[in-house]
């Protein structure tokens, strides 16, 4: 194997580092003032980690005698870190295009859920699916996310709601993690809905006494790597008491708490998460001022999901209030059969237009802060020496075009690089 640096990306018009002092997250003004090098280069070593990043002429002198396995001439282009998608549900069978029509005609998310559709519809089909079928659709979705610039993605289970199917989903995620270049953070979400025929108490009991112990055993045996625990804390789904019990049990097993809260009704989920030391809470369309203050104090990230409010016509999450209070704001696509979106550039665009975030805030939220929400910001989320060499080369002289050009990412993203390997190369297509 060659010990040459794996990749040189040279002479980029802009290299957006995001930050350069080992920050684990950014808040307030830090999100406005991203670290950008004009006319810069990046070197990724044979171990896939960033070896050097800086002004092009400095790196040219420093590496004047080196040879590289691969060189990308980024003259006139921009380099940004690989995007981080902090919230997805990508393992399932059974799309819900018919429900999209119902929602367009006025049905609410909970109307559909109560009528036996929504998550329950997908649960039935996912329970019936064979593992290879589940893995194939998962792989297709992850490849699509990667083409849209995502290099680290959180993937949830949660369409089984009983042990065997939850394990089948987590195994599919594990197999994808082993065989695809995209980085994955795996989340057990057995409390995504109360299964048909069970009460909340019975479902909670099953998770605590059956599902989590089996998960723990497989994790200790090294058969399964799970990073996070999730619960859909919502009126008519899991109440505050059952949410607390499940999250605490997951935390006791060493999982990060990262859950759905305050989405459709104010539940005081943000306060509960802050009290339990949650790493992140998603949605928060209905969070209260007290919840925002508690999250800011606890360092709990808010994972905002602009596609949900957009598709369900919900009130927008109060991003500006959270940003001003110093909450660590991150973004996710919420890819699921309700919100079929694989593109973080579109998510950033929606965050800017509908949630009033600035473009630098949106990029920080989709890189370093999303990595923080997955406890990966020591290795991902910015272009700093010794972090993973995950980056995008954009065919534009200013990085903001990635957000500005709604749906234009297919044309803008020339290369997607993960650990110094080019995993998407649109250069050839562009020249046709
Ligand atoms: N709100 C709960 N879970 C998902 C939706 C899942 C589904 O509808 O299948 C979400 O984050 O939007
Ligand atoms: Zn979700």
From TrEMBL:
Pathway: Amino-acid degradation; L-histidine degradation into L-glutamate; N-formimidoyl-L-glutamate from L-histidine: step 3/3
EC nos: 3.5.2.7
EC main group: hydrolase
Record keywords: Histidine metabolism, Hydrolase, Iron, Metal-binding, Zinc
Domain of life: Eukaryota
Protein name: Probable imidazolonepropionase
Any single Pfam family the record assigns to this protein: Amidohydro_1
Residues covered by the Amidohydrolase-related domain: 79-423
GO biological processes: L-histidine catabolic process to glutamate and formamide; L-histidine catabolic process to glutamate and formate
One MF annotation (Gene Ontology) recorded for this entry: imidazolonepropionase activity
Reactions catalysed, as given in the entry: 4-imidazolone-5-propanoate + H2O = N-formimidoyl-L-glutamate
Cofactor dependence: Fe(3+)
NCBIfam families in alphabetical order: hutI
GO cellular component: cytoplasm
Origin organism lineage: Eukaryota, Metazoa, Chordata, Craniata, Vertebrata
Family: Belongs to the metallo-dependent hydrolases superfamily. HutI family.
